[in-house]
Design brief:
It contains four helices and eight strands; from the N terminus they run E-E-E-E-E-H-E-H-H-E-E-H. It is of the alpha/beta class. Strand 5, helix 1 and strand 6 form a beta-alpha-beta unit.
Length: about 180
């Protein structure tokens, strides 16, 4: 299986992009741990199944893992105190376990995953800074958008949220203050 190839120029920089590699990257391997100054890491459109080896990424603010085969949020602990944006759309995530470590997370883009239950969505309330959430085309969003309860339920569960699925949230109390 292919990890991050030693021949690739992983020069320490603020933004590292290894997008749509041929052959696809299947593993986030130990070479990532050298990227101490990396603020944005893009590994989208590969074949990654697990989030691993983030230990050395002490400055990471944005992690882009869209269009992979990621099944869970485990492995994010090392970036729990720095990560502000997680772009993880088009993956296989059904459970939110492990998301709660991201204490600085402001933006979570996770459209086109497999989240089915409100109990999983509720775990996003553990994220004190979350203001922008995209969950379009998860089974739970599709089901509750049909019966038009999706936005209202999310607004109740995630009271700090400012934007849902690309559309700003306007709350009643904010209107009254205006």
């Amino acid at each position: 299986s292919s990890g991050i190839n030693a021949e690739w120029p992983l020069r320490p920089g603020e933004e590292i992009k290894l997008i749509c590699q041929i052959p696809s990257i299947e593993k986030m391997d130990a070479s990532l741990s050298t990227l101490n100054n990396c603020k944005k890491l893009s590994l989208s459109t590969n074949a990654i199944e697990k989030i691993t080896n983030l230990n050395g990424l002490k400055s990471l603010k944005i992690l882009s893992l869209g269009r992979n085969n990621v099944k869970s949020f485990s492995g994010l602990e090392p970036v729990g105190d720095t990560l502000e944006e997680l772009w993880i759309s088009y993956n296989l995530i059904e459970k939110m376990k492990g998301i709660g470590v991201l204490k600085k997370l402001k933006v979570l883009f996770m459209s086109n995953n497999q989240v089915k239950d409100w109990s999983e969505v509720q775990k996003l309330a553990e994220l004190p800074c979350l203001v922008d959430l995209n969950m379009v085309s998860n089974p739970i969003e599709e089901k509750h958008s049909l019966d038009q309860t999706w936005r209202a339920e999310i607004e109740k569960k995630l009271v700090k949220l400012k934007k849902l699925d690309g559309i700003p949230i306007v709350r009643q109390d904010e209107e009254d203050e205006g």
